[in-house]
Write a structure and sequence with these properties.
- The protein has three helices and 17 strands.
- The two termini are 34 Å apart.
- It is an alpha+beta fold and 235 residues long.
- Strand 12 and strand 13 form a beta hairpin.
Amino acid sequence: MEGNVLDTYACLYVIRGEPFRSGTCLHLTSAETVIGRATNNFAPDFAFSNAFISRKHVVIRREGEKAVLYDLDSRHGTELNGVLVEPHVPYPLQSFDIIKMAKGMTVLHFSYLFADQTLEFEPLSMTQAWEEPSGPSMIYWEKRECVVDGKRIAMSEKEYLLLHLLYEQANRLVAIDDIKRNVWSERTTGPDGVPDVTMDELNALVYRIRKKYGKDTFLISAVRGSGYVLELDSK
């Protein structure tokens, strides 16, 4: 790696990106970390095998106490929280930021918070079912209805609250505690001020949404112990 080797100051968790398994933690330890695709003549610090990833796709530099992302004029682009970044422009990173490369073929979750932990993705995660929805879908928030393939589907109160929250922060990780406060505000809160909601309840709600509306209608990824991400096409 280039630069001086430092202690781990942040991590990238792989949501999607061969050859890494979902949930793999890529420790950021150097002043400069290049992410791209390995060739016979070049090996980046973290190498992905997808052909749409450029040899030198992005670099993350430690500038002071912050990690800063730069797209290295990659051929197929980089998105930060669903917004296409400009080449060679600094983008300071924050915990829960979602980095997509090559139109979402590789997706990474950035974090300062979990440098000593290994996150795993819930079995209900849709990280392997990321293709475009098979038919048109529309949401009518005022009516609390979703139209999927021409069929009107009424949202329950909890489905509406969760989907609306995820849409408001699309392509960003929404923390579990924030979901509990917004979706189960009527529940008794514990000493930490968070409603008493089990992960089984939360997982069951996401499962019902997938089953009711179709698994490709809402691309929701779950990161165990952290939160949920609603992936939206930024085109």
